[in-house]
Write a structure and sequence with these properties.
It is a single chain. It is built from 6 helices and 26 strands. By secondary structure, it is mostly beta strands. It has one domain: Single-stranded right-handed beta-helix, Pectin lyase-like (Pectate Lyase C-like), CATH 2.160.20. It has a 16-stranded parallel beta sheet that branches. A 6-stranded parallel beta sheet has the order 4-7-9-11-16-20. A hairpin with a 6-residue loop joins strand 12 and strand 13. The longest helix is centred in the first third of the chain and has 12 residues. It is globular and about 60 Å long. 50% of the residues are buried.
Length: 340
């Protein structure tokens, strides 16, 4: 909640807005770290939002706090000229936070979440070397359905973005799907840094590989053949920092992993085979995955050399992977028309 002193000093217009916000009316509030707005904390503004959610505008600054968004309809909007001017950051890891999923700087489970023009960061590995165990550090864990991210930066190293389903009872299911749309976003990392079993569409995103001896862009984890789960990268650009020597498009966290790259630009650092094996219980996973490309471009596009278990799509097959079709669900959701 706002600080008591902030409330006493707040002008009448702000007091009225906060009263409406608390009563459940659809209003907009503003967060500023210097105390010049309705709230000084992003999490406080989320906690104070009505049960149906609300619009939260965030002024430029660095906000070091863990975020948890369980309410539906929460909309975070950065007020800077660029996404880099509003940074939501924390620094837990699997080792310090009690597990990979508990390391997230922001955990988003509420439906109809929107974020625009801001940055999510997990800074744990910025000055710490990666280790075999414990270095996983999630910037955002999102399990909410119908989540939309526009012009958002995701900064981290290992396991940056956990894009997952709402829930799974077991590896055999059933799993409840979570549809997520990422438009004009920037996502960086090095090991398995886009992972999970969401139904996620990445539209005109930049996927940036940070320095590491072996970089895995994705570790998709579709549990079983019929799970509504998969990642699509459409008109995306993969870029490589100095020292990102070998970049793989992905490896299967689980044996039914599903990843498609459409019309995407790939750098020379992409390993010709494209897709890496990850055995589970001594059994190869690539024979059961769905790894595919359509009209990849750039020096890393090498369809003749790709792993034989992957496929190059036809135009007709690729046409099935639009956000309107891929994310429609039973309610016909079209995230491309969802704007603030």
């Amino acid at each position: 909640m706002p600080r008591r002193n902030d409330l006493r000093r707040a002008p009448l217009a702000v007091m009225l807005a906060l009263t409406a916000y608390a009563s459940g009316a659809a209003v907009t509030v503003t967060v500023a770290a210097d105390g010049s707005a309705d709230f000084t904390s992003v999490q406080a503004s989320i906690d104070a939002a009505p049960a149906a959610g609300g619009v939260i505008r965030i002024r430029p600054g660095v906000y070091r706090e863990r975020l948890a968004v369980a309410k539906p309809g929460i909309r975070l909007r950065g007020l800077g000229a660029t996404p880099a001017e509003v940074v939501l950051t924390y620094d837990l890891s699997a080792g310090t936070g009690g597990g990979t999923t508990k390391s997230a700087s922001a955990t988003i489970s509420g439906t109809d979440f929107h974020a625009e023009n801001l940055t999510f960061e997990n800074s744990f590995s910025r000055d710490k070397p990666l280790t075999q165990e414990g270095s996983q550090a999630v910037a955002v864990k999102v399990t909410g359905d119908r989540a939309v991210f526009r012009r958002v930066r995701f900064l981290g190293y290992q396991d940056t973005l956990y894009a997952a389903s709402q829930s799974c009872q077991s590896d055999a299911g059933p799993c409840v799907p979570a549809r997520q749309y990422f438009a004009d976003c920037y996502i960086e990392g090095n090991v398995d840094f886009i992972f999970g079993d969401a139904l996620a569409f990445f539209d005109h995103a930049e996927i940036h590989a940070l320095a590491h001896s072996t970089v895995m862009l994705t570790a998709q984890s579709k549990h079983y053949a019929d799970e509504e789960s998969g990642y699509v990268f459409d008109h995306c650009k993969v870029t490589a920092a100095a020292g990102a020597a070998k970049i793989w498009l992905g490896r299967p966290w689980r044996a039914y992993a599903s990843v498609v790259f459409l019309h995407s630009e790939l750098p020379a650092e992409i390993v010709p085979a494209g897709w890496s094996e990850w055995e589970h219980n001594g059994k190869a996973s690539l024979p059961t995955v769905f790894y595919a490309e359509y009209q990849s471009t750039g020096p890393g596009a090498n369809p003749q050399a790709r792993d034989p278990h992957s496929r190059q799509l036809t135009a007709a097959q690729a046409a099935a992977f639009t956000p309107q079709k891929f994310l429609a669900g039973s309610d016909g959701w079209d995230p491309t028309g969802v704007h603030e």
